Amino acid sequence: MKLTIPILLLAVLSLSAVPVPKEKPGRSNAVKEQVLKNIEADYQAYSKIALQIWKYAEVGYKETQSSALLQQTLREQGFDVQVGVADIPTAFVATYGSGKPVIGLLAEYDALPGLSQQATPEKSPIAGQDAGHGCGHNLFGTASVAAGIELKKLLAASKIKGTVRVYGTPAEEGGSGKVYMVRAGLFKDVDAVVHWHPGSENRAMMNNYLANSSAKFRFHGISAHAAMAPERGRSALDAVEAMNHMVNLMREHIPQETRIHYVITSGGKAPNVVPDFAEVYYYVRHPKKDDVKQIFERVVKAAEGAALGTGTTMDYEVIGGTHDLLLNETLARALQRNLDQVGGVTYNAQETEFGRKIQTSLGFTVPPLTAAATVGKFETREGGGSTDVGDVSYVVPTVGMEAATWVPGTPAHSWQAVACDGTEIGTKGMAVAAKTMALTAIDLFTTPNLLQQAKTEFKNDVGSYTYKPLLGDRKPALNYRD
């Protein structure tokens, strides 16, 4: 990887909403332009890393090779890397610099099970592979590392002062990796955190994500011959089905913003054997963390009732739990300014043909391909998913963005997203994210008023709430994908 140390002096890009010290005109813009050129110069090296992680396609807490590759990249650039933090083998914290401010960058790298797909515009799973990067975390982690390295260059050249930290955060997809890292106090001295997420458009992230509690409910019965001695059996599968039925009836009597999903992960082995074990995996989501707690308790009661009614026993294991995402408008507006400067992505003829085939496969009306080149306006939206970034946002001012790594209209967690993530359509969007994150972090390092205003907003929003993880004191669920 080519390294170019910027030699221009830093200054501050003033924000209309935030009073900042006066600086000589053009100094900050010149430094930012150099950072943009540096990332562009190293684009091929970062693309190679992202596509290698795409090939690894390792699921939550199993991202051994993916994590190691990012760690190695950071070590080679002079970062001090601490591995196995928060009792998670694939989690790490990479640090460069000293003193304040401390600016954190989040890096994810876990894949999703059941989404194996080649980098082609037709559905075509990779033989012998189950998982795929349907949420673009191969791009996520790499862009954050790229931004971190650019900030390290500035620190090394004494153009900015402070500390940059890249947090390697495993198992975002249901494993709540960041929750354990927050619980371990790894963010307690951080002044602000910047993150991003792959998507189908370019915008500052101002949408609320849902709080989430998840658990695996396990029922234990008595096996017997299903035809010759059914009266001697007690079906664990009956208990799962009874629980699911009661929860489905409960949907009428819970807040309409609630989302409840489940999959039966074990339901017996043969129809003529009464199952003595069955398991169902549940997610409970709501915009407010307190409501999630209450609704989850009702789901537990349904499980207890199902066990009582079927003559079985039940235990459950909390797998994950995440807070809703606390938005910071001060930081989001600063990020939006930098995203406007960076701009979106454009596709060449080959990528355009690929993209059109992807869009055709979706089967519904989609925005034009040229929408990937535009930057969305600043606006607040309703969200439907969940993220463990929410827990980070409740302990430190946090800002995020979305970059167009999939052709417009592509949904996350789809084979189409996996296909785009394995091509330059994905890596071009990744470069947009790396550039925007680096520029936003520069503002945080060099504009004390911006950081102070963000902290004031954060304190007002958190109020008297004292952070407490929704997953309690359980240890990381390192085998939740098994």
UniProtKB/TrEMBL annotation:
Signal peptide: 1-17
Start and end residues of each Peptidase M20 dimerisation domain: 214-306
This protein's record includes keyword tRNA-binding: no
Pfam families, alphabetized: M20_dimer (PF07687), Peptidase_M20 (PF01546)
Keyword terms: Hydrolase, Plasmid, Signal
SUPFAM superfamilies: Bacterial exopeptidase dimerisation domain, Zn-dependent exopeptidases
UniProt key word Kinase: no
NCBIfam families: amidohydrolases
PANTHER family: PEPTIDASE M20, XAA-ARG DIPEPTIDASE
Protein name, as recorded: Amidohydrolase
